[in-house]
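Bench notes, afternoon.
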Amino acid sequence: MSVEGFIKNIRNEMRNDAGISGDAQRLEQMTWMIFLKVYDIKEEEWELMDKSYTSIIPEEYRWTNWAHDNKDGKCLTGDDLLRFINDGLFPTLKNLPVDEDTPIGKSIVANVFQDINNYMKDGVLLRKIVNIIDAVDFYESTERHLFNDIYESMLKELQSQGSSGEFYTPRAVTDFMVEMVDPVLGESIADFACGTGGFLTSTLKHLSKQKRTSEDIELFNNSIYGVEKKPFPYLLCITNMLIHDVDTPRIYHANSLERDVLEYSDEDRFDVIVMNPPYGGSEKEVIKNNFPTDLTSSETADLFMSVIMYRLKRNGRAAVILPDGLLFGTEGAKRNIKEKLMREFNLHTVIRMPASVFAPYTSITTNILFFDNTSPTRETWFYRMDMPEGYKHFSKTKPIRNEHFDAVRDWWNDRTDVIDDKGFQKARCYTVEEIADGDYNLDLCKYPQEKREILPPHELISEYRQRRSDIESKMNGILEEIEMLLNPDTSQ
């Protein structure tokens, strides 16, 4: 079955249901059913491997026992199906008996359904959709990764429409970052704002090539760790991990910023951290109390950078996507975060990426910071990744691809000279003294200012939002410094 055909069939049925409003609800509705279908398949495998295995889901609510249509006219449909789901299935799954001793493979069911809803109101249409999903064998080789393709396709569609879809980091970017940090089996790999699991999926793909023995499989299953604040991306991520053979996914529905960073011990740290922190958002004021005063910020990306530094193991390594705002900020927390990063960690490489990498979702210009916890920074290489030949910008129909990083890969292994391009530096190494003298402004090897192109209205709006975000980042840093000067008694 093709991804397009699967989505089209479900969308066509859901359009006729009065309870569904927009693609975001369609996707959530579809995904909780896919989760139960996938979980049912996993439970069959677990029962074969362990004769003593018992499901945390009561028998009548396991997918096979209510969703499968035996074509005998006895399957639930219409109002009976709606009552079964609304009055039985959902209340039961939301209130499963879970405590600290419940295995992760079982507790995820209750966690997933805490904030998920059934939106559909037509039980006949609901039965049709259940049948469409039940017909897919997610463990057949031809359909194994169908779910991954489905939700990525839908997220791209949401973003291209300007809707509030979940953040989608292109696979070419996540694959490149994971390749460069090169995690190995036996290491712990984390993403503290994992969304739908893009970085974790790239990590699993990288690690799967290393599996040889049963011990390797156990290491693979316990290698990743993720935290996601929002319920729907959490559901997507959990399902994605199950499909990628992680039977006990250590993915937690929580906010990584809610714990005091000074409380982290060695047990809370990881060998590898790869992530794209959310930025442009805001947190409750109480969240700021979890950070030292000099690192306190109203910008989520700044706060996540502090979490990453406090949770990276000695000799560990990290790859993090950050917006331009943090790079050129020379006031308040932004400056202090960069000073801490370079004094305590080895920021060895910064890759500047074109503004359209995340198109059509956003045109905010981003960068990849590669650093490790081996020593203070002595020097940092900057490399400007230009648009590939024949591209003016990336788009939904012409997205960034893995091969577009080939020039970066070639440079990565042979970074001996400054690279000049039409009078502008494309790559250069700066000493930590040079960077400190510039007040930790990392806006180096920037993109040349070209003749302004007349853009379509929606792209002009995106560009305006990007520039506004950059300006707000600078203003926030200045305001934070002023507040600390005016209220010195509030410092920790």
